Amino acid sequence: MADQISVLVVDDKPQNLLAMRALLADSGLQVLTAESGPQALELLLVHDVMLALLDVQMPGMDGFTLAELMRGAERTRHVPIIFLTAGSQEAQRSFKGYEAGAVDFIYKPVDAHVLRSKVAVFADLHRQRLMLAERIVEQERLARVNALMLGALSHDIRSPLSVMMLNAELLIRQTESPSLQKAGARIKSAASLLGRQVDHLGSLARRPCELLQLQPTPGDLATLAAQRLDVESNQAVLWSPPAFERVGDTVGEFDQELMAQALDQLLMQAATHAGDGALRVQVDGGAHRSLMLRISFDAVLEPEAAIHLFGGQEPVSGMSSAQVGPGLQEPERVARAHGGSLIGVSRARQGTMFELLLPRLQSER
Description:
Blueprint: E1 6-10, H1 14-23, E2 30-34, H2 37-46, E3 51-55, H3 63-72, E4 81-85, H4 91-99, E5 102-107, H5 112-174, H6 178-205, E6 217-220, H7 221-230, H8 232-235, E7 243-248, E8 251-254, H9 256-274, E9 280-285, E10 290-297, H10 303-310, H11 329-337, E11 341-347, E12 351-359
Parallel strand pairs: 1-2, 1-3, 3-4, 4-5, 7-9
Antiparallel strand pairs: 6-8, 9-10, 10-12, 11-12
């Protein structure tokens, strides 16, 4: 990458430019030279430079003016600038230079060792930025590939799960044996659970557009949920007290304020669409590394409500991947900021459910 890195030297005296070329000859950099500000601007339109060395005192456009023009252009806004000056080291002049965007001053006569050392530092920083940019591009590419692969695998997993659920339903309906009916119910329940886990994987694969700033602290998610159920504003939208269940250890790390807001929004949406039906709230801490919040009710959503909550152009049904629409975007942002996910499903004979998954510890994300 060294032959691609350029440094721009601007000085109105040709002998100074010649001397600067000689000093930087062994640096491995491409040295671009200009005898005036306008000539420098023309070079900057063609070349990408990692550093600009500008003489302060030049006729017409001086170094400060050139620096201000560079700072005002998107292409050159972030190019580091070192001023070269033969003037006195007055604080006022230095302050004006820093206002114009200088990162350093070198006073003439130029010390060759100082010049090479400073240029080498900026060259190393530039190479590191290029390497970092390449790694970011590669990581983004891998993330897209992983998301595509995960989507394909999720689809492949849902197909046999759908078959399992249909056969379990047939077993339940067509057999008269209580033991076989119980086995069919267990198979159906397990397939449904696996389907929701696949939905969470699909949700986690989607890249967040914006993450919230978290202030996670240790807390009990079940205790927080119970507290939000007792809040007057939430009780006002509930027809009756929800059935509340705590399973296992529900202690973890999360942002208490953001999670309270997410709980309030989920309760409001559930109460709005459940009508006079009863709500069920469960906080499940049975998993070692995660916490699960479930809010469910028996009613099946109308098509418009399903689109509002789950997105898409039609209600979520069958074994389709659960999505999140405008009505659940804010609690989903909270879940994903914690490294978790939010899904929602509404199906005949199963009712409607919102399921929020969180990592138990933020340090394990």
